[in-house]
Structure formats: C-alpha cells, structure tokens
What we know:
globular, alpha/beta, Aspartate Aminotransferase, domain 2, four-stranded antiparallel β-sheet, 3 domains, 18 helices, Aspartate Aminotransferase, domain 1, seven-stranded mixed β-sheet
Amino acid sequence: MTIINTPRDLPQLDEFLELEDLQGVQARYGRAPLVEASRVCIEDLRQRLLNGSAPATLDSLMSSVTDYVKKTQSPKLKRVLNATGTILHTNLGRAPLATAAVDAVCEIASSYSNLEYDLNLGKRGYRTSNIEEKMQEIFGVEAAVVVNNNAAAVLLTLAALARGKEVIVSRGELVEIGGSFRVPEVMSESGARLVEVGTTNKTHLHDYRKAINEESGALLKVHRSNFLIEGFTSEVSIGDLHALAEESGLPLIYDLGSGSFADSLTGVLPEEPTIKKALDDGADLILFSGDKLFGGPQAGFIIGRADLISKIKHHPLLRPLRIDKMTLAALEATLLLYADPDKARKDIPLLQMTLIDLNELKERSSRLLNKLQAHGINAVLDESDAVLGGGSSPGVKLNSCNVVVTPACGQSAQSLDARLHQADPPVISRIVRDRLHFDLRTIKSEEDSELSAILISILQKDQI
C-alpha cells in the first residue's frame, strides 16, 4: 500500500493517469473528465497535507478521483422510486410509460425512421399523419392533431380560430396550472381577447348568451381539473353550450385537461369528465394532456371537427409546438394499447396503479414490512389514502396502505429522508408526524426488492 505522507509523495499526473485501476474509469467516462478529476483531487490532497492533514494512500486518492468523475459525469436526471402514493406526481415526471412505449422510443431513437417519409408513395410525408389516423380511430372523431403539451394545444387552437376575436369563458374556470401559468395569460398570448362571464361560483347559460356579439370568436369551457368549488355553485353543461354555439355559429372548445379515456377509470373517478362524454355532448374540439389520465408521454391532443382542425394544422405555430420522434413513438404505442381495454388496463402503468387490487397491495406491503422488521427496523402497516395528483381529480382519495417507519431515538424523519434522496436510485417518501410513509401503489412490483434493499441499508444503520 503506497502511503502519501507529504506533498512530495504525490504522484505525477501523467504517471497517475496510467495506473491500471483507473483504466476502467477512463474507458467509461473518457480521458478528459479523468484528467480534470485527477488534477482537482491531487491538488485538494496537496492542500490538506500542507495544512497538517493525516497521511493518505494511493488507493484512497484513486477512489476520490473515481467518485469525482462519477459525480460530475453522471446524468442529473435520474430514475427515482416514488413511494409517495401520488400517481401523477408532477415533480417526479407524472405518468410512467408502458413498456411497449419505452421499447418504441428506444427503437426509433436509436435508428433512422420514416418520421416524415411516406413508404407507400416513396416521398416526403406528413410527420403525424399515421398517429392522427390512429387517434381518429381510437376516439371516433373526424380529425385530430397533437402538439407538445395541453397548454400548447390551447395556445394553438385559440391562435388559429380566434386571434383578434373574443373568447367567452366562465370566470370560475380561469384556472392556474403548474408553474404559475394561467389560462388568461395563455389566451392573451394567442391573440384572443378574454371575455369573462358569470361569477366565481355561479355561471348560467344566459351569461354566455349576453356576451355574444359580432366580435365573438369562440366559446371556451375549461375543466377545473386541479381544484374543487363546492356549495352554492352552478355551471353550464357542454350540452347546453353546444346548443348555444350552434345557434350562434361559434365553435365550442373544451379544454378537458386530464384526458380520462379508459372506461375502467370511471368506477374510481365518477365525477371526472371523460373524452367520450365530451364528444357525445357536442364539443366541437376537445383538448387534453397525454401524460395525465391518458397515461402516455407529455403531449397535447386536439380532436374533433375536421374543418376546425384543418385551420389549426395550417397555422404557423404548429411547427414550433410539434412533438419530436420519441414522443411520437411513445404516443403511438400507448394508443395501440388502448385498442384493447383489457390490455390497456394491464400494461399502462397509470391504469395499473390506479386500479390495483387492494389485497394485492396489502400483500406486497406486508412482505416489505416483514423484511424491515426482521432487520430491527421499527415499522408498522397503516391504512392510508393515495391520490391521482398532477392536477387531476382533486378530492378523490384511493384506499391504500403504507409501510410506516418511526425513526430511532435521536434521529428525525427529515434526516432519514435526506439520506434516502441520496440512494441509488433515490427513494421519495412522505413524512407525516415525523414518520416515513412508503406507499407501494406507486412502486412497480419488480421494484419491491430494490426498495427493500435500499431501506434496509439506510434505515438499519439508524436503528443500530
């Protein structure tokens, strides 16, 4: 073992870089990052030795260099284990993709594709023509277009159909979405002029009717997907707005937001408006997210009347708002799963997690509990509520269960939580009354053993 007692004992950089134990690091991360890390770590050790630090070893120096390279060269965006019970956790990436969607992304991203090439005609094609045909088939609509998120869908639709005109919307539906983005501000950027009608808690059909004039461009209904108004309330249905829109010759645009489509979701989300009902009730255009209750990648769907979507497709904003090939691949794979409701329920993670059998969840939680207790960790099983999250179905609670860990004396849930965040992969839990709560509803079954190993590694240290 080579001891480094003084700065004179430090290795020369060129010789250090040639050490056999560092060749694997260089092969994986490249020579330049290894050189930078070696310079930093050698200089750091030099300064510590000058300040009277204890001697080091060559092995410890190589270990420091390896750690430095891994830290600086590893992606900052990484997979985490979501044990919060919040299914569409906005901060954690919302809906995980189905395996079929992930496979499709890998295949298309790693090779050439017919992204904008018509294989039948042997010439340039339209980027989203294939997926739009599938959207028309799945949703049963005249036409469809897809952009990179639902806010973009709203912006593009209003810019194409109502720029310079008035768009009438209920005051109680002027929502603020994630990141402090507000519907009125998105509308303003589209060039449309907002006309608010009704009050925060009550809006009637005659409020819309009185606001219609020669400057009107559209009626807009916005689903309040991320908050509830209860008590003395009233709002106008899509059916009634459809009749008024036809009478006035205006398009009725419905910003549905969450995009609930699977019939199986209606049992647990009875109050959540669905794409099918919105179509049946007569909305001319329906806008919704791909990565919320639809369970796909981030995208914004626009479906409905062919004449209106034709105008949208010819608007110059479509190009900067279009989806890339990886999103396109994931979205098409997800749509194909929806062709069979049973397959969708089985293979789309959003549906799996939302509709999981409670007994199955309890069995998995009990297995985790037993493993933790076998290692002396103070844990119990407790009933709890999971939520959809992601600005979807506020107020809806899903019966669930948590493995609840009480920190050892002298420790806090916050300190343990911080250590879990540094695990590989990081574990995200909930803290309630200084106890850590782990909900396996949002953990894939194949991740159970990985989660238990991380918890035992970190929590057992705290119990000793």
